[in-house]
Amino acid sequence: MDRxxxxxxxxxxDLNRQGSLELLGLLESADPDGMGGDVEAREAYYGPMAxxxxxxxxxxxxxxxxxxxxxxxxxSATARAELENTAAVGAYxxxxxxxVGPAVGADLQKKAMLAIAFxxxxxxxxxxxxxxLPYAVGAVAALFHDVLITLTAIAVTxxxxxxxxxxxxxxxxxxxxxxxxxxFDRVRENLRLRRGxxxxxxxxxxxxxxxxxxxxxxxxxxxxxxxxxxxxxxxINTFAFVLLVGILVGTYSSIFVASPVALAMNxxxxxxxERRRMKGRR
Length: 282
What we know:
Shape: elongated
CATH superfamily of the largest domain: Multidrug efflux transporter AcrB transmembrane domain
Distance between the termini: 78 Å
CATH topology of the largest domain: Multidrug efflux transporter AcrB transmembrane fold
Structural class: mainly alpha
């Protein structure tokens, strides 16, 4: 998009948009001071001049005219004359540019995966302490499901995974587990009120009792996130997209993933305890 800025300058060197490497290449190639020699020697000579021109631009924000080159310290008279003949100033300025290399990108990806993994482990331990192990396993299974589906949606839509995207995924983890905990808390209450009854009908009753709350909460949140996605602009578009997909996925995962997994895990543990008790009697 920056190529369209100051497009009216034609082939002249854009002093407000080009970077130090491009400016150094211009001075080294033109060699206005007649340094001669090899490329490395000319780059070493004109490098401080190019940096001085760019430092002036960073300090003042933009070159208003080529006459301001006279105020750049360290720029020789012949180099200034060369820039006055070949360069021009536009209405837009590039104050700085940053690029992320493969090593930094790989480190960012690793830290993002670790952040999500640690959050899932933290949720597992918390729900295990607060409730029981089957509920913790069910909640983490639902969270893993939510993150996996959301990452799939990001990949399908060819969106970039950056720090705001990771922040959205962590936000999604917190939102989804909150909905799951509400269902499990109602299950625990019904277990106390209806002692002796099977877990499966109690879990089904608890889901039905919290269903209206789940739809109302998710629906109101969805309206806000949808508004951000449509009207929020490019800056938070991916963030809103992740939350939009995550809320839709997290709403049904609390019912159709977390609860069935917790029920299955509970049956496994009950069967194991029963086998141990039978072995103890023998």
